[in-house]
Amino acid sequence: MCGIFGCISKDVKVAPVIRAALKRLEYRGYDSVGVATLHEGGIHIKKDQGKIDEVHRLYNLDDLPGNVGIGHTRWATHGAPYQANAHPHIDCLGEIAVVHNGIIENFSELKAELESSGHKFRSKTDTEVIPHLIEDNLKKGLGLVEATLEALKRLRGSYAIAVISSREPDKIVCARMESPLVLGLGENAVYCASDIPAFLPLTNRAVVIENGELVILRADGYEIRSIEDWKQIIREPEIIEWTAEMAEKQGYPHFMLKEIHEQPRCLTNTLRLQDQYLDLMATFLDRAGEVFLVAAGTSYHACLAASYMFSELAYLATHPVIASEFIEQEGMAVNINSTILAVSQSGETADTLSAVDYARNRAATILGLTNVVGSTLTRISRVYIIQQSGPEIGVAATKTFTSQLSVLAQLALRVAKIRGKVGHKQIEEIEEKIRRIPEIVEETIRENEDRAKKIARKYKDKPVFFFLGRGISTATAMEGRLKLMEITYIPSIAYPAGESKHGPISLIEPGFPVVFVCPMDETRKMIIGNIMEMKARGAMILSVIEKGDEEIKKLSDDYFEVPGNLPKVLTPIAFVVPLQLMAYYIAVEKGLNPDKPRNLAKSVTVK
Ligand code: G6P
Fold first, then answer.
1. Three-state DSSP class for residue 174
2. 303 and 448 inside one domain
3. Most informative mutation of 596, 603, 605 for ligand 1 (most atoms within 8 A of CB)
């Protein structure tokens, strides 16, 4: 998730406007920054790694000349955040500059094709194929707009782009496929941006660009066209009433709620990972003597769920281990045949890194799954995968968790394919459901949000909660419990349901809330037994059930319903969502700020 911005003005020097706008987009990423402007027949660029203020201090971004320009603040997806990879990217002749937010899925093929016809690439990014494609089209005699249009038709994946060219300095061409793009209409200037906060202090007149649209911006207006059939689209601006702070959260009251709602989009991103890295990692996992899944907090719960996935699909035994326990628990058993799959959203969690360091010193193979390109974990892993969730600002992890699960399920499927343990039909069914998971999660949010509000009002004063699940739902229960506890401060416990009668059941007294995670898998009959045990002792049953599970619905005081009829290995991705919503709304009911729970940090870099 990066931030792009473009500005074309009748008479104002745009560089300071662009820098200020990028600063307001910094929450979308801050690995590197760059600005390109047009002036006297040439393109002027300044860019480097680092946050906007740091880069500005070194280069004075404001003194770029000209009334037309584009800028970018980067959240790296392809290529580490060093200078050559910072946007804008240019063509061979330096006549075209492009900023991009999104992922070009087929960039490897396009890059190979362009290189073989003589194009020279300067970066490792997927974005750089765009200026080179446009360059080829300009050479064929097309104008900038048509050249961009033809280039877009070759791209697969997601993008919001803004393009300028010294050949046609009277315009910015921008376009959208999935990644967000909004226009802002000022008195003397027109803007395009990833998000409204970028231009909100300058104008509150905005036009939201839809998927598959290309826009030609001129200093006095805009023209929207359909990329598919070039039909003109007339759309009047709307007046935005948000404050700057509201706009940064896209109108949501908290980042956590915004990030819960971003999950469908993030899950779609996880379906666009580069095959070669998934395959390589799957090969390492398949060949490992033993596999340790090492992580902390929410990422550990992803590992716990993954251990069920690897066993179920790939017949591969893996050991999920809490990072801070790893050395004591498994240390002496780690050797050259061991493979560590470290999972860390930030890639910087000290406990995880020290477990990895230890294992490296014992010659183990290190694999990494993280959300942050250039993080320490990416530097010390033999192979790593970037989960493409964009920055997560709420301290309680939500979108990064479900995306980790999606990546881990895809990995388990690939190991399954290598091992040939699971039939084609089952693999195809699961693959089909993975593709549908973004829409299933979207539906889950839509259908459960109001219910979560009601349940939050009803349960907010309960002094304690109990979360139970069986099989892979144990991981879902544990994550549901962590969400509730960390942001509402309500003491909570989670157990595998079967274990509950070996101790924790003694806590139950009338009115005690017990949350059951109950997908329709083979654990369901046993879960019903556990529900009965709890009911018999007066517990209040709050269940997360498969849509249409009337039997458990009847046994429950309250319930959330999850659509989609998911295979059990994918259930945590959707079943955790109502629990995220419930935790969020209970925190709000209690007057707490869910984004900043006391005593917690987003990234814990001390042991
Ligand atoms: C902290 C955060 C958690 C997170 C954990 C692991 O405790 O508050 O939300 O799950 O660290 O972080 P990581 O970046 O390694 O996934």
1. strand
2. yes
3. 603
